[in-house]
Every structure is written in structure tokens, then in C-alpha cells.
Amino acid sequence: MTPNAAHQSPLTSDHRCPIRPAPATRVRPSTATLVVPLRHVNRNGIPKVSLDGISLSYKTNDGSQLLALDNINLRVKAGEFLCIVGPSGCGKSTLLHLIAGLQPATSGKVLIDDKQVEGTGTDRILIFQELGLFPWLTVGQNVEFGMKMKGISKAERNERTDYYLRLVHLTQFKDSYSHQLSGGMRQRVALARALASEPDVLLMDEPFAALDAQTRDLLHDELERIWSETGRTIIFVTHNVREAVRLGDRVALFTFRPGRIKREFVIDLPRPRQLEHVTVAKSAREILDHLREEINKSLEEQYGHEAVR
């Protein structure tokens, strides 16, 4: 796997690096499927998500300022699957919180459809690693919870709940409780609950990190299918580079703190992909070579130069 000649030089102002062993093909369902339409159909070329000069700093216990994110500029197209990778502590998850409106940036702007984000909104849903399912509610009640808070009628809630449980293959578990489900099934409930609110943007913070390899592989297939059928925009944070290549249209690589976008990789591989595919492994290796530099920086800061010798 070799990038285009124009990208062989070190980082330039255009730091996107295409990975193109074969023409890209997005998988589409072969049979007709009921797809809940997106609220916004962007025909003007405006990015779904825009990050303009995003920086974030914290005040530490000793009174000094810690710069966590520095001048993040990023555009995400409607329907794009963007993956973000980087060393621990580089601000990947924090960036999702900013997009979700859970906290403000120190400087810069987050825009959705060219409108500045001022707080949380139902057009963006963040799925945490911990899932946040309510153990006292059934699967169906968990899925409809957000709709109920929005005042959606019971008839429509039931219709949407049934639809999204079918989408994640959990119809027969509608009346079960979360403690009766496997880890992978609970993850699918969280995904159905997020989709039932019909957000334009799904923000996913290492959602599969705690799962075993077999379940994770199955959920990769499920997520790719759901993304293909619904057309949602997904921003997916992961530490697993091969997972990022398996799922993403594009991978943004963050530097160690302060988090900056070091390089972007266009993943122009045919779909569906599998983790064990040679082209996926080769693409992941290229990204990992760049990531390792940042991992070494984080180890040097924590343990000193001996840690990376």
C-alpha cells in the first residue's frame, strides 16, 4: 500500500493521505429496506460537521494551564464515517464532548450544517463506552426513553422502537432487562436507543473496546450495515487502528497532547471489509507507523526516555 506521489513528502498544508489499493465501493442493501429519512438533506455541499480552530485548555491543580486541544480544523461530510485515532490523553473523547455540546471549547467553533453549536441537541447523540442503559427498564423501554422525553406520541414511539429493534436484531428481547443480555446485545440496545431519536450525527466513544474479539467483529458488521441503510454521519473514536481502517471512510490521526490533527488518511478500500484482510492490515500498518511516534512521546512524558529505548 503506497500513498499517491503527491503525499510522499512530510506533512504539508493538505495532510490527507489516500490509501487506494482498489476503487472504493460502499455496500448497499440488496433488498428494499424501510429507512427512516434524515431530517436534513444537504444539497449545497455544506459539511455536516465543521470544527473551526477548536482549542481547549484546563486549569490544573497547581494553577497552570494545560492545553488539551490545539487549533483543530476538520470537516465531516454528511453520511461520512470518520474514525479518530491517537495516543491516550490526546483529547479524542474530549473532542466528541465538544461536538455533542457537553462542554464549550476555549476558542473556536463547532458547527452542524453551518450553524454554531451552543449546547446539546437531538441532532447529535453520543454513545459512551459505558452505554448508560437503565437497568430498571426493559430493552424496549430503554429504546423509547429519549422519544418519551421529547413528547413523541406512544403510537409513534412503539413504531420506532419496533423498527430499530428489528434493525439491530433484538426484536425478541424487547421485554428483557439489560442484565439478561450479553455485552454485545447491550451495545446494540444502546445503538438502537441512539438511532431511535433520529440524530443526524452519531458520536461513538470507543463503543466496542470492552467486548471480546468475536463479538466486536459481529458488531463491526452490524454497524456498517446500519450506517449503510440509514445514511447517518458517524464520528468514531478508537484506540484500535485496524478497527478504524475496517470501518472508516477516513481516519484522522491525533498527536499527543496537545491534540492536533497530525495527518488524515482516506481509506479507499472496497466494502465490506474484514479485520483480517491483507489490504486492511497494510493500511493499518501505515497509520500505526505514524501513531507510534506519538505513543513514544506520551511514554517519554510519563516514564522518561528509558521507556522507549
Oligomer: single chain
Series of H and E elements: EEEEHEEEHHHEHEHEEH
Could you name the ranges where pLDDT drops below 50 across 5 or more consecutive residues? Answer: 1-13, 22-41
Overall helicity: 25-40%
Mean of pLDDT = 83
The gyration radius over C-alpha positions equals 20 Å
- The spatial strand order of the largest sheet comes to 1-11-10-4-9-8-7
Overall number of strands: 11
For the report, how would you describe the main beta sheet?
A: 7 strands, mixed
Class per helix and strand makeup: alpha/beta
Percent range for β-strand residues = 15-25%
Which outline best applies? globular
Number of helices: 7
Could you give the distance between the termini? 28 Å
Strand-helix topology:
Elements: E1 16-19, E2 49-59, E3 65-76, E4 81-85, H1 92-100, E5 107-112, E6 115-116, E7 124-127, H2 139-149, H3 154-167, H4 183-196, E8 201-205, H5 213-230, E9 233-237, H6 241-247, E10 250-254, E11 261-267, H7 278-303
Parallel strand pairs: 1-11, 4-9, 4-10, 7-8, 8-9
Antiparallel strand pairs: 2-3, 2-5, 5-6, 10-11
